[in-house]
Amino acid sequence: MSALMIKAEHVSKYYRLGKLGSGRLREDLANWIKRRPAVSNEINEHSKQEIWALRNVNFEVQRGEVLGFIGNNGAGKSTLLKIISRITLPTSGCVYGNGRIASLLEIGTGFHIELTGRENIYLNGNILGMNKKEITSRLDEIIDFSGIERFIDTPVKRYSSGMYMRLAFAVAAHLDPEILIVDEVLAVGDAEFQRKCLGKMKEVSSQQGKTVLFVSHNMQALKNLCHRCITLQQGEIIDEGKPEIVIGNYLKKQQNNFTYQSYEAPESAPGNDYIRIKKAALTADYIDGFDIVDIRTPLHIHFEFWYKDIDPGSLIVGVHLFTFSGECIFDICSEPKKYNNGLYEVDCNIPGNFLNDGNYYISVVFVKNTTQRLFYFEACLSFEVQDYRSDTAWFGKWIGYVRPSFPVIVKAKPE
């Protein structure tokens, strides 16, 4: 059997914005055919009524490979995965698949809300082409991995989003697919289960030889899990290669010296039902009149957020600092404390003579009761540290991620 599992050739996907709206099927169909353009250079790039979610996408995936996709919202990542999963058809081009595909693209995909968790396991198994005996042989393992044994015979319409996610991933990962497709849905659920899912994906690719396609905004997960990454921008592949290189290029382009963002109202702010970000800011205590961040420059991190929870628990706010290649420099957090609903601010200082020169980004995480991740505001701030010292004879790149100014004492020892 060939080692080639997926091949995409000249895949493009076109959507028309808005509604057809004539009220007559024949007229709507005729208008749609009339307005549907061919993939060519004659496309009106500035049309407000049409959008190319994908344009001429080509790539191959080998057996046992974990391929990651990164890009801004609207870059075409989810559309591409839906085409590979055969949920939607491309406007032009084609995708060849070699093996059974299990996809996890949005919460509850393939579930029937009136059926219990146990019944949905059998339903999904049948969709994947497995018989009842094969599903039963894996049933206990699936239920145990999901961690929702107590509710397995409850209709899934009563599940929380986290419970939905647990069962959906457990089914997709254990029903023996040759190809596993996972979108950003792993952002739902607590941190412990996310680590469990990432570990399972690593296991199925390295030990079982399965192929995994993975979309995430978690750069560290992509770097640790994937063999190769592809960056999509406005439906086109703009970068492809080793994860650390592709991720570094993406973050440099997207987040270079992004030191401030602010929002007036919770409705327009990034976040979810629990956390909404009002402000994120990075300020520098510049030295010697230089308007740059030098290795000696102290930095101040400031966040403001709205907190809303009908059942408030112990809240922890963590600040993560990463290099652009994805290595974590530090992970520090506040003391666990119960907060009422309202507006709060977070402050953190990075002293001078701590970071090496290079490019960095900051993420902030909100965790309830030490395990439930409420929101992860990733790569929300970024900055570059430069070395402008004039009191040294060495101007090469210093090794290491930090350059603390610890005293090193050398003195004569009496013989």
From TrEMBL:
<keyword id="KW-0067">ATP-binding</keyword>
<dbReference type="Pfam" id="PF00005">
    <property type="entry name" value="ABC_tran"/>
</dbReference>
<dbReference type="GO" id="GO:0005524">
    <property type="term" value="F:ATP binding"/>
</dbReference>
<dbReference type="InterPro" id="IPR029439">
    <property type="entry name" value="Wzt_C"/>
</dbReference>
<dbReference type="InterPro" id="IPR015860">
    <property type="entry name" value="ABC_transpr_TagH-like"/>
</dbReference>
<dbReference type="GO" id="GO:0016020">
    <property type="term" value="C:membrane"/>
</dbReference>
<dbReference type="InterPro" id="IPR050683">
    <property type="entry name" value="Bact_Polysacc_Export_ATP-bd"/>
</dbReference>
<dbReference type="InterPro" id="IPR003593">
    <property type="entry name" value="AAA+_ATPase"/>
</dbReference>
<keyword id="KW-0813">Transport</keyword>
<comment type="similarity">
    <text>Belongs to the ABC transporter superfamily.</text>
</comment>
<dbReference type="GO" id="GO:0140359">
    <property type="term" value="F:ABC-type transporter activity"/>
</dbReference>
<dbReference type="InterPro" id="IPR027417">
    <property type="entry name" value="P-loop_NTPase"/>
</dbReference>
<keyword id="KW-0547">Nucleotide-binding</keyword>
<dbReference type="GO" id="GO:0016887">
    <property type="term" value="F:ATP hydrolysis activity"/>
</dbReference>
<dbReference type="InterPro" id="IPR003439">
    <property type="entry name" value="ABC_transporter-like_ATP-bd"/>
</dbReference>
<feature type="domain" description="ABC transporter">
    <location>
        <begin position="38"/>
        <end position="259"/>
    </location>
</feature>
<protein>
    <submittedName>
        <fullName>Lipopolysaccharide transport system ATP-binding protein</fullName>
    </submittedName>
</protein>
